[in-house]
């Protein structure tokens, strides 16, 4: 069980109206998971689990903010999160039988479900692919260093000398 079972919900057949839980997803949540994408966060997750004719329907909504590493300057950048999911939980002897984006297959006789990884995946998938600060908000020192590398004013060896093997090619390039 992830996160010490803190996000585990037991199936209760007597809960005709379902089971509702509210969770706080903080830095402790993200550090307890085997991941390194999300560095910290302050989110609230509301989950509702209800029985529907032999299966369980899970609905959850998550909102708040998370911090990830900026792809450009490597400082932390915060992103708002507003996401949710609707999933049917089915029971079968073969776990991967019909598992899809909208259904989870659990072994017959399973007593509950740990929502931690499902919360994490929903948050991660809500983030943009390119994770950078808004224009002008990146770490200025890192941005200056990147600009120097892009303009060729800094060589990868830390000196401005050109390897003699490439010197002739560099001259040809400059003559064009």
TrEMBL record:
Q: Where is the composition biased (Basic and acidic residues)?
A: 162-176
Please spell out the taxonomic lineage of the organism that makes this protein. Bacteria, Pseudomonadati, Bacteroidota, Bacteroidia, Bacteroidales
Identification of the protein by name:
DUF177 domain-containing protein
Annotated region (Disordered), positions in chain: 152-176
Domain of life, source organism: Bacteria
> Mind telling me which Pfam families this protein's record contains?
YceD (PF02620)
């Amino acid at each position: 069980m992830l996160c010490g079972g803190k996000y585990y919900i037991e199936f209760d057949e007597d809960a005709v109206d379902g089971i509702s839980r509210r969770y706080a997803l903080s830095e402790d949540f993200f550090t307890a998971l085997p991941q390194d994408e999300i560095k910290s966060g302050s989110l609230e997750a509301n989950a509702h689990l209800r029985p529907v004719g032999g299966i369980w329907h899970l609905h959850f909504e998550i909102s708040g903010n998370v911090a990830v590493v900026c792809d450009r300057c490597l400082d932390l950048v915060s992103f708002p999160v507003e996401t949710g999911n609707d999933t049917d939980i089915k029971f079968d002897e073969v776990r991967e039988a019909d598992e899809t984006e909208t259904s989870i297959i659990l072994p017959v006789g399973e007593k509950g479900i740990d929502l931690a990884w499902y919360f994490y995946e929903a948050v991660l998938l809500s983030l943009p692919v390119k994770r950078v600060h808004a224009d002008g908000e990146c770490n200025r020192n890192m941005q200056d260093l990147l600009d120097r590398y892009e303009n060729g004013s800094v060589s990868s060896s830390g000196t401005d000398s050109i390897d003699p093997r490439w010197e002739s090619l560099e001259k040809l390039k400059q003559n064009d």
